[in-house]
Design brief:
The structure holds four protein chains of four kinds. By secondary structure, chain A is mainly alpha-helical. Chain A contains nine helices and no strands. In chain C, the strands form three sheets. In chain C, strands 8-9-10-3-11-12 form a six-stranded mixed β-sheet, with helices on both faces. Chain C has a four-stranded antiparallel β-sheet with strand order 2-1-4-5, with helices on one face. The chains are: A mainly alpha, B alpha/beta, C alpha/beta, D mainly alpha. At the A-D interface, helix 2, helix 3, helix 4, helix 7 and helix 9 of A face helix 3, helix 4, helix 5, helix 7 and helix 9 of D.
Chain lengths: 213, 277, 264, 235
């Protein structure tokens, strides 16, 4: 396999990284809200949040992307490829992240929340300043896994017309009839990106461990 | 009870949402007019189907690119390519994300029920691709008793299955998610031959040093065409494309393009109304 | 008119499902003094304290802080009713609480733990909040440890930070729920010392503890609970002096060596 | 629109049977793959925690490589890579080549194990040291401590992420159609490709996967409810 082909893969990985990174960040904020909704004692809010998780976790991402890309324009919302890609990825990861966070929230020792109550923190302040940061710390390895998962799932955004790493690899494989070396090379590029992500995850874990009771 | 209600509700919603995509788009303005006004014809395709559409050194090239360039000239519009995986291409055509699909697809009875097809652009008749130097297969009948394969649910697979059934000894016919995977298994030695349309495998053999075409073709004669939207507002556009292609065929440009990408020219009828399969 | 008690508990009942933990408690906690809640395990003393902090909702009865009802009040017809959350927050802001398990937030430094509520609740700027928090840490002797995380502090130090955190909000009343029970004996002293000097400033304190020595020497009032009921209350000399209630004898036998009980 | 009726049209006859057999394969691959994957993942997590340093490094490298590359690539290399290597090294006469289904199951197990092991690792980290020390002091062996103390305690934290991961594994089974494992997506795609009925085939896929995910989620919730007695053991 030539350097020229490998370089094409590296170039395509730029979009993989860009779309994944934006979606992970957007998805995190959505997931925090969804998780708060799931744990809420308000029944309609909780039911809506559960339905969100059920739908975006339950159906294949490919189909979610198709719905966003093809269905929304029919109700008058013209979504460009880039927006559809980010929307699909971030809503899907939000559903998964929300479930991960839920496990974390339920493991936050009750005493810490009681202490916040006694200090007069409002429910929202307790959520934002105490429960969320601790839940994130407890679930860092799972959240890192999810980030890596999304990096890889982003291969599906080709269905809305964004040519990223996997699609480029498939294209090259089918035009050169050398699928094995090209897929191996694409796998290597993914590995490098994900090792960097896993490395950041580990740094975060180490920092979090310092502040552990 | 609460949970069950939730599930039912979700399913109903999903069905509604998914089926919604199948509804014809509300816009009923004549598509040809819209295309002319914008000066742009949007063409959807996948890029894993050499030599029709593929990526060479990072650029989208192939017979379709050349052919649509000419069609655009005839119609006085620019061509805008939208490349998607094949799964997403036809839903895109149905929901109006683009005006025509550059597939190409083998024209079959079942597919004609759902879509219109442009005039044929090449023959799709099937031949066998083997590993270079495999002396045990010199004609199609030599695959008797040997494992072979093709892309699943393709017209070519159906032809191969028909053909194998009539041989004295029947080998296994494997189905692959796409032809590229079938080629990979041929290279890996799991199967002895891949059945695909002659234009495709001729190009494969020309590009890759490890494969070779077994002549002649077998099975019934079939043709490749471009899928088109069957809704009435597309009728004038489909006619305009057909007229442009007729002109391109008549003055020899089509032959040149075929020669460039297939190495041979094909004689194709003006229209396939009643396909053999 | 008599002086309003810091805390007044009237007719408080607490049931968890079918088990009654408190079966009707009436109690007055005087201002500016230390009151100790004693009693064997399971007597309901921690539950009572948690009801007073409104971490548990009493099943029945009224709790007044500084003359104002907490969580539940009486409507004009004398029927018990839930009060709005705003009133709950306002009344509860008069109370500071220290827990057995410290409950420091693990992701914040000592200083961060103390300053947090000053910023998010009181709305102080970061700088001002830090200065105030630092002053509190100095009072409990931990100014040098301000940037340490809870996991880097000993149990005694963590509990002193927790006291500083409660004090930073300038409460009128401090509740202590077995503040030294999860500490090694040699770390107990440093926490008790901080509590002693806090008592000397005239802070109203209600302390659930098994430190009988501390109770006897610092408290002005001892309240003894048994089986969810208030058994004895009074000055240490009255409660511990002879003749003693037989349950208190039994209790002292359990918590002190037999010989030591005789010394009291 | 008659999409709904054409969907039902595909659910009986030969197409219906093919879809059903695909569904059966998907469920077998999913269940066996995730059970084996979770078991392997647990042993990886234990070995990394209690084993010697080199074992930890080796397994960490394994986990990062498996996690870091797409399942598509792994399945591809596992299925096509072996024969290629054999052909490169000799005439290909002596060569272990895996059937698609076996290659798929093996790939799924190994892929899942890497992710599961990371979840278990997080679970170990979250358990207060004191609880483990307490078990040691009452004379539990390491294995007993693991089984009786650590496992139940960390389940609460880990369970939702485990359910997540198991659902993700379900969706990864669809990737196996690339190495011609005849699972659900492979069979449903046949209809889509043959008749160009993609909207119908996508709807069928979405509904079936959603139903499976909901079942998995319900099992997870039931397990959580049973295990909730381990929560709030303090105070």
């Amino acid at each position: 396999m030539s350097w020229e082909l490998f370089w094409l893969l590296v170039e395509a990985s730029g979009l993989t990284i860009l779309y994944s990174a934006v979606s992970i960040v957007v998805g995190f904020f959505v997931s925090a809200a969804v998780c708060a909704g799931v744990l809420s004692s308000n029944r309609p809010i909780s039911a809506a949040a559960r339905l969100f998780v059920s739908f975006f976790r339950g159906t294949p991402l490919l189909i979610q992307l198709l719905l966003i890309y093809y269905l929304l324009p029919q109700i008058g919302l013209n979504v460009p490829s880039a927006v559809a890609a980010v929307l699909g990825l971030s809503l899907c990861t939000a559903a998964y992240q929300a479930e991960i966070l839920r496990g974390g929230f339920q493991s936050v020792p009750r005493g810490l929340i009681e202490a916040a109550d006694m200090c007069g923190l409002s429910a929202f302040a307790t959520f934002r300043r105490i429960r969320l940061p601790i839940a994130v710390r407890l679930t860092l390895p799972a959240l890192t896994s999810e980030a890596i998962m999304i990096l890889k799932s982003s291969s599906l955004i080709s269905v809305v017309g964004v040519v990223e790493l996997t699609t480029m690899a498939k294209d090259l494989a089918s035009s050169t009839y050398q699928p094995l070396p090209i897929f191996a090379a694409a796998g290597f590029v993914y590995l490098v990106i994900n090792l960097v992500v896993a490395g950041f995850g580990q740094l975060a874990e180490r920092a979090a461990r310092r502040g552990h009771a | 009870m609460n949970r069950r209600a939730l599930i039912n509700w979700s399913l109903a919603l999903a069905t509604g949402v998914v089926l919604g995509t199948a509804l014809p788009s509300a816009a009923s303005a004549d598509v040809l007019e819209t295309v002319k006004k914008a000066g742009v014809l949007k063409v959807g395709t996948e890029t894993e189907f050499a030599p029709f559409d593929f990526i060479d050194k990072g650029k989208h090239v192939g017979l379709n690119v050349d052919l649509f360039e000419e069609i655009g000239k005839e119609m006085g519009v620019k061509i805008e390519w939208v490349t998607l995986p094949w799964d997403g291409v036809l839903p895109g055509l149905e929901t109006g994300k683009f005006d025509i699909v550059a597939g190409p697809a083998t024209i079959t009875k079942k597919r004609l029920e759902r879509y219109k097809f442009s005039p044929p652009i090449a023959e799709a008749t099937v031949a066998i691709l083997k590993k270079k130097g495999d002396a045990s297969i010199m004609k199609p009948e030599d695959i008797a008793g040997k494992p072979t394969g093709a892309g699943k649910a393709t017209a070519q697979l159906a032809q191969l299955q028909e053909f194998v059934k009539k041989l004295p000894k029947q080998g296994e016919v494997k189905e692959y998610v796409g032809f590229n995977e079938a080629y990979a298994d041929l290279a890996a030695g799991r199967i002895a031959g891949v059945a695909n349309s002659l234009p495709n495998i001729a190009f494969v053999a020309q590009t890759s040093p490890v494969f070779e075409v077994v002549q002649p073709t077998f099975g019934v004669k079939t043709y490749f065409g471009f899928p088109e939207n069957a809704a009435p507002e597309y009728a004038s556009l489909n006619d305009a494309v057909a007229a442009a292609m007729a002109k391109i065929k008549a003055d020899g440009r089509m032959g040149k393009i075929q020669k460039k990408w297939f190495g041979v020219e094909f004689d194709t009828p003006a229209e396939v109304k009643d396909p053999a399969i | 008119m008599s002086i309003v008690s810091a805390i007044r508990v009237s007719g408080v009942v607490k049931r968890f499902g079918s088990t009654a933990v408190l079966t009707g408690i009436d109690l007055d906690v005087p201002r500016g003094a230390v009151t100790c809640l004693l009693g064997p395990s399971g007597s309901g003393k921690s539950t009572l304290l948690r009801c007073i902090a409104f971490l548990e909702e009493a099943t029945d009865g009224i709790i007044e802080i500084d003359g104002e009802p907490l969580g539940f009040g009486l409507d004009p017809d004398g029927v018990r009713m839930r009060l709005p959350d705003a009133s709950l927050r306002k009344v509860r802001s008069k109370i500071g609480m220290v827990f057995q398990q410290f409950n420091l937030w693990p992701h914040m430094t000592a200083l961060g733990n103390v300053a947090e509520a000053l910023v998010t609740v009181r709305g102080l700027g970061r700088v001002e909040a830090s200065e105030k928090a630092m002053a509190q840490l100095e009072k409990v002797g931990l100014a040098q440890r301000a940037t340490h995380y809870p996991s880097e502090l000993s149990g005694g130090q963590q509990q002193r930070v927790a006291i500083a955190r409660a004090l930073a909000l300038e409460p009128k009343i401090m509740l202590f729920d077995e503040p030294t029970s999860s500490l090694d004996p040699e770390l107990t002293g440093e926490v008790l010392n901080v509590m002693r000097s806090l008592a000397e400033t005239g802070m109203t304190m209600l302390v659930v503890t098994h430190e009988i020595g501390f109770a006897a020497s610092v408290a002005s009032k001892i309240v003894f609970l048994d089986h969810g009921k208030l058994l004895v209350e009074g000055a240490p000399a009255e409660v511990f002096g002879k003749p003693r209630h037989p349950r208190i004898d039994q209790f002292l036998d359990t918590y002190l060596d037999r010989g030591a009980a005789g010394l009291l | 629109m008659n999409a709904l009726s054409s969907i039902f049209g595909y659910l009986h006859g030969d197409d219906g049977w093919n879809i059903l057999s695909g569904l059966a394969n998907t469920i077998i691959l999913w269940l066996v793959g995730s059970v084996l994957g979770a078991a392997l993942g647990f042993f990886i997590a234990v070995a990394r925690r209690y084993g010697p340093k080199p074992v930890d490094w080796l397994l960490k490298a394994h986990v990062e490589v498996i996690r870091g590359t797409p399942f598509l690539v792994q399945a591809y290399l596992l299925y096509f890579g072996g024969p290629y290597l054999c052909l490169a090294l000799g005439d290909g006469s002596v060569c272990l080549t895996l059937e698609p289904f076996h290659a798929g199951l093996l790939g799924l197990t190994v892929y899942g194990s890497a992710y599961y092991s990371e979840l278990f690792r997080a679970g170990f980290e979250a358990i207060p040291r004191g609880h483990i020390e307490a078990a040691t002091t009452v004379g539990f062996t390491r294995w007993q401590t693991l089984r009786r103390i650590i496992l139940p305690e960390m389940t609460m934290l880990v369970l939702p992420s485990m359910v997540n991961m198991t659902i993700l594994l379900l969706k990864e089974t669809a990737v196996l159609s690339i190495i011609s494992v005849k699972e659900l997506k492979f069979q449903v795609d046949i209809i889509g490709n043959r008749d160009y009925a993609f909207v119908e085939s996508f709807t069928i896929l979405a509904l079936v996967y959603w139903a499976l995910v909901e079942i998995c989620g319900a099992v997870g919730r039931a397990a959580e409810a049973r295990l909730s007695r381990y929560r709030f053991a303090h105070s």
